[in-house]
Backbone:
């Protein structure tokens, strides 16, 4: 996964899925990443949508960006056990506020 600079009016093109993306702009390494959470557990591990895209991206980026999960308070899963490839998030934002993993 690569990230490109975006600014209002920058040239755009459609990607393989028909989603607009910046065309020929500078490749950047993000310092902050938001990841959707279906659920999350102790230690900041997230349950996603099953593709492993965010875990692979977070494992590959250097330097590692600050990662924030976006979920609901009712999405906390106290018995969630991460798999070896899962990457913990630095924080989670839910409808109650910020959660700092312990």
Residues:
């Amino acid at each position: 996964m690569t990230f490109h600079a975006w600014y209002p009016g920058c040239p755009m093109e459609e990607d393989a899925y028909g989603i607009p993306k910046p065309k020929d702009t500078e490749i950047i390494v993000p310092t902050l990443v938001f990841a959707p959470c279906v659920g999350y557990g102790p230690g900041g591990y997230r349950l996603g949508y099953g593709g492993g895209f965010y875990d692979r991206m977070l494992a590959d980026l250097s330097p590692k960006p600050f990662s924030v999960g976006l979920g609901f308070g009712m999405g906390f899963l106290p018995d969630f056990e991460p798999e070896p490839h899962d990457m913990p998030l630095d924080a989670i934002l839910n409808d109650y506020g910020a959660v700092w993993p312990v």
Notes: The radius of gyration is 15 Å. The longest strand covers residues 32-36. The chain has a mean pLDDT of 94.
